[in-house]
Design a protein that fits this description.
4 copies of one chain form a homotetramer. The first copy, chain A, is mostly helical. Chain A has 9 helices and no strands. Chain A is elongated, with a radius of gyration of 19 Å. The N terminus of chain A is likely disordered. Chains C and D meet through helix 6, helix 8 and helix 9 of C and helix 6, helix 8 and helix 9 of D. Chain D binds a DNA duplex through helix 1 and helix 3.
DNA sequence: CATGAATGAGACTTCATTCAT
DNA sequence: AATGAATGAAGTCTCATTCAT
């Protein structure tokens, strides 16, 4: 039992992993193509090429699928921000912020419909521990970026910066903007303006 | 005309008008108390103290109830902005912007749950003519405010300002902020910063 | 009370009569334009320019409206047959049959959709006394026509002749035939052939 | 292909096939026992000993159940006519017509109420491709029968023969006739008389 | 484990009919 | 009488979930 923990995945586990991913991918596609209202467990299973019974083998209920989708999105976002921070050779504030914004924007504008759908779904889900943890983690990273500016920033400031960026990125998604560079420039302007130089 | 599109029948008697209002009020309460997922026509009718048949006498379907709710919210918002602009004796930019923000914030923080629920619902509804008209009208008013600053502003700028304010207000709603004055101050800072002096 | 029975209709009665007729006419139009499935009491009242309450003033229920429509159709049919028989100067069998068929065909092909709809409705209604009386009356008249042929005819023969004519006329309705003369000729052929000269 | 049009899902397991048959049988029984107006999806499912969900697993809507019933009836009719034609050793016209009539009459008088109900339902359904194909197929077979008479017959003649037979058989159904032999004799008389030797 | 048939609560909606005004 | 607002039983259909095979 315990011995197996760190062992390479058995074929069974590999297949299970593939099934889970097929289900998540199918869900994302349905959200993108037909919207939230068309996301039913039967359609997900069908599109994933899996039986409905199998879906319930891996997810206790429909909400769990959505939750997992959101979890993935959050992971990608945190990872993207981390990578942006690592990539940033200089510790210059502007460069770091720019890099972080670029990574987030890219994430959102890549599949704007999916991103918007997940944004919506997030509101449906109860404000659970996981959500709080994510926000704490993200705010921590943003804090790190803003810290490079020199002065200390308050929690409120961090939240405001996130709110500003989120508002502008979501609007860009809805407006089907595609010019990521321009969007980033405008968000930079808003954030820096807000921070008051 | 436009108003009648989603109506099945225009109430002629006072009683009918009361029924329509009861339905809308009940819908708002359910949204606030239990959220979007609990909003069913039967529950609405029950809470409104009205038969399900009466609901369908005045609304062709469930979506129409939501639409009407959104329509009301938009009307209130435009009216509030108008009033803010009228009230502003001076033509000073800052004062006008402050007044407009105050009125909008007040609307949103008054019933934050309802406002958030309607924000969500708005995304579900297709971007129909009515939505476009509302955005044009709102942007026009914001343009008027920003114009008092002296220089001309682009459509993009207007949209960005709206996006910034919307993002910050929605975040405040979610965070259950209650200090409207502070929120307004921070939004002012972001907007003025974005506009660049 | 009793004194009034034979008096000229009062204005009130005249208005009532007009309402009843408006209702029946509206029903016929709806049947013709939208079919049986679209015939609802509210639509009837609306199209008749009458309130739903008034409809129920004159008809105890929806079925009664249909029944009255069928009653009218039957009256027209019996009257048409009577007239055809009266008009026929000669007592020659062929001429009489031809005249009767002409009148019935004309009735059916005039508003084929209404006629078909009423044919259908007839089957829905229970086989009541009125229906039996109508059939007896019609068969009596057909018997009279067939009698002019010389020999006596059985009840079975009468029914068969009616069935043949009804089958052919209904098919002509469905097939949207318009050549009444040709249809009559073919029915004559079938009936005379059946009677065996 | 054509068969699948109104099907939601083709049953793969024996259990599923049984469900579909139970639904159709229940529908037929309800039509026979209570008539068209009592045929509701809930009653069908209940009588079939199946959940309402199962009904909708195999039929997209209520109309599809009726359609399938009619489809079955048509299949039985075409098969019966084919068998009658095959059985008829001699190519004598009278014998062939007699055999065909016998098979059709037998079908209709077997469950007269069901047959009548389906006749009615047929009129409700739009004259779709399937209906046209059926009529063409049936007329083709009748043409074959009539052709054995020697002379060529027109399309009009075929239709008239079908209309005569249909009219008489339906009347026999309604009149609860049970003497199939006599009915066949009378129809033969009408058809042969119409054809005029 | 996988499959997919089956389930059934419950959502939306219609429409014949009633009744206060 | 006329009006039309209101009623609510009942019908159609969906979809998350279970369970026998």
């Amino acid at each position: 039992m315990t011995l197996a923990i760190n062992k390479r995945k058995t074929p069974r586990q590999i297949r299970a992993q593939a099934t889970v991913e097929a289900i998540l991918e199918a869900s994302a596609h349905i959200l993108v193509d037909f919207g939230h209202g068309a996301l039913t467990t039967n359609k997900i299973a069908e599109r994933a090429g899996v039986s409905i019974g199998s879906l319930y083998q891996y997810f206790p209920n429909k909400e769990a699928v959505m939750t997992e989708l959101i979890r993935h999105k959050r992971s990608r976002m945190l990872a993207a921000v981390d990578m942006a921070l690592d990539d940033t050779r200089s510790d210059v504030f502007d460069t770091a912020l720019d890099a972080v914004l670029a990574s987030i924007i890219q994430l959102q504008l890549n599949w704007p419909r999916l991103a918007l759908a997940l944004d919506q779904a997030e509101v449906f889900l109860p404000l659970n521990d996981e959500t709080i943890l994510f926000k704490v983690a993200l705010n921590g990273k943003i804090n790190e970026v803003l810290g490079r500016q020199g002065s200390k920033v308050s929690e409120q400031t961090i939240q405001d910066v996130v709110a500003i960026a989120k508002g502008m990125i979501e609007h860009a998604s809805l407006a089907r903007e595609t010019d990521e560079v321009d969007l980033r420039r405008r968000i930079m302007r808003a954030v820096i303006g807000y921070l008051g130089r």
